[in-house]
Amino acid sequence: MNTSNPPLQSPEPLVKSDFQLISLVAIAHMFSHFAQLVLPPLFPFIKDSLQVSYAELGFLMSIFFVVSCAVQALSGFAVDRFGPRPVLYLGLSSLVLANWGYAISDSYTQMMFCAFLAGVGNGVFHPVDYTLLNRLVTPARLGHAYSVHGITGSLGWAVAPALMVPIAIAFSWHVALFVAGSIGFAILVLLLFKRSELELPVIERAKASGEHHTKEEGTFDFLKIPVVWICFSFFLSLFHVFF
Q: Is 165 part of any domain?
C-alpha cells in the first residue's frame, strides 16, 4: 500500500502568472498617469502656437479631469457588465487617439475635443486595474501588486514632463504629443498580444432556475449598503475641508 504523499505542485507557474499580470496592469496604469501630464509642460509652446491664454489651456485640464471623474464612476458598471479587458482596451485606445489628436490640432476647439476624449480614456483605469488585481493575483501578493500599481502611477507623472519638454524643444510640441500617443499605442499592442493574461470571465447574475426570488436585484442596490454612504460622507468632508 502506497502511503506516500502526492507531490506538491510547483508554485513557479503561479508566481510567473502573477508577475506578468502585475507588470501589464502597472504599465497600463503608468501610461494613464503619463497621459495626465503630457499637456501642462507644453503649455508655453502651445500658448504661442495657438494664440490662447494660460487660463484657456488650464480649462483643457479641467475638461480632462471632470470627464475622467464622471467616467470613473460609470466605468465600474461597464467592467461588471463586459469584463475589464475590453474596457481597458477602450480606455487605452481613447488616450492614444486623444494624444495623436492633440498632435495634429491647429485650433483650441480641437484641443477641447481631444481633452474630452482623453478624460474618457483615463477614467477607466482604476476600476479595471483593481478588478484584475483583486480577482487574478494571488492574495499573498496583493500588497506587492498594489505597491507596484501606485509606484508606476507616480513614475508616469515624473516621466511625462521629463520626456515631453526635451522633445518639444528639439522638434515641436506636435511631435512630442505624437510620441506620447505612439507610446500608448505600443502599450496597447503589448496588451493585445498578452490578452490571455488579462482574461477574466464576466460575472453573470444568478438565474432563477428552479429558484424564485421575491425581489430582483437592481443595478443601484449598492446604495443600500451603509458603508457606501460612510465612505461618501468621509470624502465629502475632506472636500469641504480642503476646498
A: yes
